[in-house]
Amino acid sequence: MLDTLFYFLIYPGLLFAGIIGGLLTWVDRKLTAQVHFRKGPPMMQPYYDFLKLLLVKETTVPASGSRTAFLLAPILALSGATIAGVLILLPLFNITAGFSGDIIVIFYLLAIPSLMYILGALASGNPLAAVGGSREMKLVIGYELTFLLVIAGIILKSGQAISINEIILMQKTGIANIGSISGVLLFIAGIFCIQAKLGLVPFDMGEAETEIAEGAFIEYSGSAFAMIKLTKYILFLALPAFLVTLFMAGTNWAGIGILWSVLKILAVVVLLTLIRNTNPRLRIGQAMRFFFVWMNLFAIAAIVLTYFGL
Questions:
Q1: Which of 3, 203, 216, 247 suits 270 as a labelling partner, its CA being 20 to 30 A distant?
Q2: pTM to 2 decimals?
Q3: Which pLDDT tens digit goes with each residue over 205-227?
Q4: Cβ(38)–Cβ(111) under 8 Å?
């Protein structure tokens, strides 16, 4: 019981994932600033933002809408992201954990934050939040099917393994999943799904600051918004780590493997940042078409190629 609480609250759960995720968020913001020929924020800025919201800003609740659902949504979003992060990170740190079918559970847990953003937006009673929530709902419908196909493709490539530990072991005893044609196609589909889950350009239409003023989060402030920030920090570590797990044989924290493991996660973050800074925001119809047609086609083609050993 104490081990479980330690994993969830301290390492590699809430505290650890929040700190490292905040650091990766800074890397993303710093690289974005460099692309824009700006200096960018200091390293501690993500933590300043979180602490200011948590300790200084007042938490206001809209007069209209559902108070309970509005305040409960960030808590559930943070819980889902944290549990998913723990299940993803434990095998990466060589901690014996997990269970058969944990990859399916992770898929569902990673969907919780987006669903809670929608619930919180609709519970606020604000029409701009409802617009953001509506866009987020349509986007979720678009990318979740693609994400499921990506996971199905990885399961097929791993000999029907449905455990994270087994998928990592299969890659370490053979070749990494990204080292094949089908693996590359699945990785392309997966990286765009991660981009959408993180709400980054070109899939940030649910927040779209220049259009609908933070969209789904327009009514959030104080500690409630701090929990949303922390959820995003945790996902900024958990989702790239999930791709490293599925496609790059996990991590190795011994000797030179430490540097290689860090570089793999950073490479995924840098790729997300480059996609963010080289594409315009899509309209919601374009985003849904992108996933329903092109990314699903990539994933299905990869599954077919897997049957032929490619």
A1: 216
A2: 0.95
A3: 877 666 656 678 889 999 999 99
A4: no
The structural domain count of the chain equals: 1
Q: How would you write 40-95 as a 3-class SS string? A: CCCCCHHHHHHHHHHHCCCCCCCCCCCHHHHHHHHHHHHHHHHHHHHHHHHHHCCC
Distance CA 261, CA 249 (A): 10
Q: Is 37 exposed, middle or buried (0-12, 13-18, 19+ CB in 10 A)?
A: exposed
Size of the chain in residues: 310
pLDDT tens track for 134-166: 999 999 999 999 999 999 999 999 988 899 999
Name the token pair of 175: 């070749």
Helices (H), the chain: 2-9, 14-35, 45-55, 67-92, 102-124, 127-157, 164-173, 181-197, 209-212, 222-247, 257-277, 284-289, 296-307
Among 248, 277, 246, 276, which residue's Cα sits nearest to residue 262?
248
**37 lies in which domain range?**
2-307
Q: CA triplet 251, 114, 211: central angle to 5 degrees?
A: 115
Q: How far apart are CA 19 and CA 246, in angstroms?
A: 23
Higher-scoring residue by pLDDT: 215, 170: 170
